[in-house]
Amino acid sequence: MSMENHQISPQGAAGVTIRKSMRSSKVEPVLFNTINAIFMIFLVVVTLYPFLNTIAVSLNAGNDTIRGGIYLWPRQWTLQNYKAVFASGTIYDAFWISVARTVLSTVLNIFLTTMLSYTLSRKEYVFRKPITVIFVLTMYFSAGLIPGYFLIKDLHLLNSFWVYIFPSMISAFNMIVIRTYIGTIPDSLVESAKIDGAGDFKIFLRIIFPLCTPVLATIALFVAVGAWNSWFDAFLYTSSRQELSTLQYELMKLLSSSMNSNSNPNVAAGVGVNQETAVSMVTPLSIRAAITIVASVPILVVYPFLQKYFVVGLNVGSVKE
Amino acid sequence: MAVTVTNKKAVRKPEKKRKLTWAVLKSQQQLIWMSVPLTLYIILFAYVPVWGWTMAFQNYKPARSFSQQDWVGFKQFKFLFTDDDFMRVLRNTLGMSIINLVLGFVTAIVLALLLNEIRKVIWKRTVQTISYLPHFLSWVIVTGIVATSLASDGIVNDILMKLHLIKEPILWLSEGKYFWGIVGASHVWKEVGWNTIIYLAAMASIDPALYEAAEMDGANRYRKMLHVTLPGIKSTIVILLIMSIGHILDAGFEVQYLLGNGLVVDWAETIDIFVLKYGIAQGNYSLATAGGIFKTVVSVALLLVANWTAKRLGEERLL
């Protein structure tokens, strides 16, 4: 079986290539292609430069960066900035809080949202309509910041780690995307499992959940990015407990203090960086660059592999109820 | 009680519908266990806080119980609409929102058209992957990058000086007149690549026969773009445009909050920042809630109008 598959797929791929090359073999205006290529190079440079520059600054000695002239390549290589970041207890703790909230949020969100989507995809389910409406309406209104804050306060979630997890366990938008995807799975799979005596939970867990992998990969990425990148909940709900701070919130505090007072050495000390190293090698700017890289690399290494699924998760036009 | 009511309704409907009986409930008990607790959860987190809207009609004092609050009717709303501060944040919200909307749409459509013209799949894929990168960065990181690039010794001033377009570095983030443009440009930088996904998907579904027919008629590259590709994605553009109208009061919060500073505050504050400032920082919960209600009500009204428009235009329903 697998031998056959191996032989078939290259042929299929070759067929596609032939068709595509036939289209491109037509004579095309050189001018257009040149201008287009220049534009694309411009786009790539503008997109990548700030990021590559940040990497260069993070790997350059802080006191040397102040002299200016660091573009894409460090002048005085050092790992001191990264060492300082991870030697600082605050950043180290914040990093792990960020990891914990991201993993927990993503796992819970994916499991619960898919479970709900499965029940709402069952046409025979008596509460299908009302529950769908209750969820869909939440996409169009929000009680607002202040009432939301009071709810969190009344639930005693202020200054608790769980405030990162509980309020965002299910998203109605993701529910619709997953439910639409489940709709493309043949109903006969569920029906035959039912005849074999499987209950709905078992069908969801053993049949539907594994079959949803392509759409869940995208949604897991979206949820994880959202959890990893958020700082506002830490700012609003847990700012009085330093040990619950997240990486993005630490970065935000660093950014706002450095924007208000350029090159203030106390800023580096503020994140718990040793004053001695701060004076010699590390500056607020270089520390910020290092934290920026630490905060963005985990996501940037993952997303290119999920690129082909993005369109599944974004196809809002196919939403119907 | 509820059971009988639903039964009557079910009988009236011509389509075959399952009656709500104990037998049905029992046979669907697993579905119920899997969904009803989650429904209660969403009611708690999305619907219960709406009760807090009562604060906007009171002179809310946290120390008092609900029955002891002073009810003031629409006083908070009247104050809002005569308040220069609120009018200013409303102007900023609409201004930045419209700039973001127009810039966002035009740049994404142009980029999608140009990406669509790249014939080598590997180049197209590479540019696409790179263009998605900023979407995955947080606003904290993006505003950090923007602030670094626009600093007096940043790359933007550097290039402009080297091109002799300016003599002195411009203090971009210290002058209100630049702020809306900077916010718009930041949004474009972050999202333009990402926003092309949906247009490229629409372009991929255009019938190749249309291109061949256009070619037979002697259409060149530009004409094909203009008369085949662009009409092919028209309905996608219309749907997205209508949907974004409902978000006209969402000019963003993070980017203005993070990039704003004392010097540009008159141009940087949006409704969300107003609510945060009055509510959380100053403890004027009633006024802040009124501001939030205004935003929600206007957004929902606009969404209903948008949905109705979409239906009239024969596009798919959004709601």
UniProtKB/TrEMBL annotation, chain A:
The chain crosses the membrane at residues 30-52, 95-119, 131-152, 164-182, 203-228, 285-306. It comes from the Bacteria. It is a multi-pass membrane protein. Keywords: Cell membrane, Membrane, Transmembrane, Transmembrane helix, Transport. Residues 95-306 form the ABC transmembrane type-1 domain. It is found in: Cell membrane. Pfam families: BPD_transp_1. Gene3D superfamilies: MetI-like. PROSITE patterns: ABC_TM1. Belongs to the binding-protein-dependent transport system permease family. This is Aldouronate transport system permease protein.
From TrEMBL, chain B:
Keywords: Membrane, Transmembrane, Transmembrane helix, Transport. It is found in: Cell membrane; Membrane. GO terms for biological process: transmembrane transport. It is a multi-pass membrane protein. Residues 90-306 form the ABC transmembrane type-1 domain. The chain crosses the membrane at residues 31-52, 94-115, 136-156, 196-214, 226-249, 285-310. InterPro entries: MetI-like, MetI-like_sf. GO terms for cellular component: plasma membrane. The keyword Transmembrane helix applies. Pfam families: BPD_transp_1. The keyword Membrane applies. Belongs to the binding-protein-dependent transport system permease family. PANTHER family: POLYGALACTURONAN_RHAMNOGALACTURONAN TRANSPORT SYSTEM PERMEASE PROTEIN YTEP (PTHR43496:SF1), PROTEIN LPLB (PTHR43496). This is Protein lplB. It comes from Paenibacillus rhizosphaerae. The lineage of its organism: Bacteria, Bacillati, Bacillota, Bacilli, Bacillales.
